[in-house]
Amino acid sequence: LATATEDMFFVYSENKRLRDENARLMQWQQAAHAPEVENSALRGLMRYHPQHATAYISARVVGQMHGPFANQVVISAGSEQGVKPYQAVINEFGLVGRVSTVGKNSSRVLLLTDMNSRIPVMAQSSGLKSVLADDQSELPHLRFAYGKQNPELGEAVITTGDGDVFPSGLMVGKVFAESDGHWRVRPLVDFSTLHFVRVVDFSERVGSENDSDH
Predict the structure, then answer these.
(1) What is the pTM of this model?
(2) Quick check: 74 and 109 in contact, CB under 8 A?
């Protein structure tokens, strides 16, 4: 009986040792892989040059705030680097959100998945105009659609330029599915792997677009 008990204790101890060792190896692998992922993201961002931008500032994401009522990030650029409130924030895939508050060397960015975010958008193929809003779900939805037609699944969603915040034509996401009476949009940006962004000044471009409408 003593031998059987000792064998069981040995097996338990060995399994625990192997689990601990596997956990350490996984942590090492993730730590080793992180610089490669960040370098790839930075290279992609640096290759992307926003059309019609008057100026842009590259920054690192240094903090995240996710919860039932907030989806925001903190970036490593502020007023000293030329960041201003309400400027558009993008990465190489599309719209990330907009600057909400600015400090000296850091700023807070309201993501397009934040429940306080309201972005005038348009379904690119059908021309259906809506407001992209979030309701604490994983996918923001289209609200206040004008017209009786519906968007198509997989249809690209872009900014309209209305509201003097973003210029028209910035990629936002794709129509994903209808849920609870709302058409959902899957953002092109993967917010779980957001490492670098660009703060973009489109103010002159937006103003010229609006002027041309009058």
Answers:
(1) 0.69
(2) yes
